[in-house]
Amino acid sequence: MTGVDWLAAFGLLLVIEGILPLAAPAAWREAFRHVLELRDGQLRFIGATSMLGGLFVLMMLK
Predict the structure, then answer these.
(1) Which among 1, 23, 41, 50 would be 20 to 30 A from 13, CA to CA?
(2) What is the largest CA-CA distance in the chain?
(3) Tens digit of pLDDT at every position of the chain (62 positions)
Protein backbone atom coordinates (compact mmCIF):
# COMPACT_ATOMS: atom_id res chain seq x y z
CA MET A 1 0.00 0.00 0.00
CA THR A 2 1.19 3.45 -0.83
CA GLY A 3 0.75 6.61 1.19
CA VAL A 4 -2.17 7.56 -1.04
CA ASP A 5 -3.90 4.27 -0.24
CA TRP A 6 -3.46 4.88 3.51
CA LEU A 7 -4.92 8.37 3.19
CA ALA A 8 -7.85 7.04 1.17
CA ALA A 9 -8.50 4.36 3.80
CA PHE A 10 -8.34 6.93 6.59
CA GLY A 11 -10.71 9.24 4.70
CA LEU A 12 -13.17 6.40 4.18
CA LEU A 13 -12.97 5.57 7.89
CA LEU A 14 -13.87 9.16 8.77
CA VAL A 15 -16.78 9.18 6.32
CA ILE A 16 -18.20 5.91 7.68
CA GLU A 17 -17.78 6.97 11.31
CA GLY A 18 -19.49 10.30 10.60
CA ILE A 19 -22.64 8.83 9.07
CA LEU A 20 -24.47 7.95 12.29
CA PRO A 21 -23.81 11.21 14.18
CA LEU A 22 -24.97 13.12 11.09
CA ALA A 23 -28.06 11.04 10.38
CA ALA A 24 -29.22 10.25 13.93
CA PRO A 25 -27.40 12.26 16.60
CA ALA A 26 -29.74 11.22 19.43
CA ALA A 27 -29.28 7.51 18.67
CA TRP A 28 -25.52 8.01 18.41
CA ARG A 29 -25.41 9.80 21.77
CA GLU A 30 -27.45 7.01 23.41
CA ALA A 31 -25.18 4.34 21.93
CA PHE A 32 -22.12 6.24 23.19
CA ARG A 33 -23.63 6.39 26.70
CA HIS A 34 -24.15 2.63 26.56
CA VAL A 35 -20.52 2.07 25.51
CA LEU A 36 -19.34 4.12 28.51
CA GLU A 37 -21.13 1.65 30.82
CA LEU A 38 -19.35 -1.44 29.42
CA ARG A 39 -16.65 -3.17 31.44
CA ASP A 40 -13.06 -3.25 30.16
CA GLY A 41 -13.33 -6.90 29.17
CA GLN A 42 -16.42 -6.22 27.09
CA LEU A 43 -14.71 -3.33 25.31
CA ARG A 44 -11.66 -5.49 24.61
CA PHE A 45 -13.88 -8.22 23.15
CA ILE A 46 -15.63 -5.71 20.89
CA GLY A 47 -12.25 -4.29 19.80
CA ALA A 48 -10.80 -7.75 19.08
CA THR A 49 -13.91 -8.80 17.17
CA SER A 50 -13.80 -5.60 15.12
CA MET A 51 -10.13 -6.10 14.31
CA LEU A 52 -10.66 -9.73 13.27
CA GLY A 53 -13.62 -8.72 11.12
CA GLY A 54 -11.52 -6.04 9.44
CA LEU A 55 -8.69 -8.49 8.82
CA PHE A 56 -11.16 -10.95 7.30
CA VAL A 57 -12.49 -8.27 4.94
CA LEU A 58 -8.94 -7.32 3.93
CA MET A 59 -8.08 -10.96 3.29
CA MET A 60 -11.18 -11.33 1.13
CA LEU A 61 -10.05 -8.35 -0.99
CA LYS A 62 -6.67 -9.92 -1.78
Answers:
(1) 41
(2) 39
(3) 788 999 999 999 999 999 999 999 999 999 999 999 999 999 999 999 999 999 999 899 88
